[in-house]
Amino acid sequence: NSEKDEAGKEVLDTPGIKVWRLVLTGGPCGGKTTAQNRLATFFESLGWRVFRVAETATILLNGGISFASLTEEQRLEFQENLLKTMFQIEDTYFSLASTQNRNC
Fold first, then answer.
1. Residue 1, helix vs strand vs coil
2. Dist. CA 90–CA 3, nearest whole Å
3. The whole model's pTM is what?
4. In 3-state terms, what secondary structure has residue 100?
5. pLDDT tens for residues 16-70?
6. Nearest Cα residue to 89 out of 21, 5, 18
7. Could you give the 3-state DSSP secondary structure of residue 53?
8. CA distances from 76 to 20, 35, 73, 82, 83 (A)
């Protein structure tokens, strides 16, 4: 059971336990990793379980894909598959978080 709070953030409603999904966005060297580490440290100090999802584009591009060498059709297919992969990875973590016995 997932729902949204007053701010539009998605939460999973489990008796006494909340699961939050937080998305950090920004350009290269924008401080996303630093913010992620600080947030994780903060919430872990409160006893929460924190899962960190790796950036999907980085995973795929580090696998040898050169975006610049792809045709327009290949780029579109790559981006479609990137989104599918990203959503699946996020759903995997969210599903696992929903089985935890503490806030995530």
1. coil
2. 16
3. 0.72
4. coil
5. 788 888 889 888 888 988 999 999 999 999 999 999 988 898 888 899 999 899 9
6. 21
7. coil
8. 31, 31, 5, 10, 11
Tokens of 45: 């100090």
Q: What tokens appear for 65 in the block?
A: 């894909």
**H helix or E strand, kind and range, residue 89:** helix 72-97
Under DSSP, is residue 4 helix (H, G, I), strand (E, B) or coil?
strand
Asked if 14 contacts 95 with a C-beta cutoff of 8 angstroms, the reply is no
The identity of residue 60, as a single letter, is: L
Instruction: Give dist(CA 61, CA 63) in Å, integer.
Output: 5
Residue 44 near residue 50 (C-beta atoms within 8 A): yes
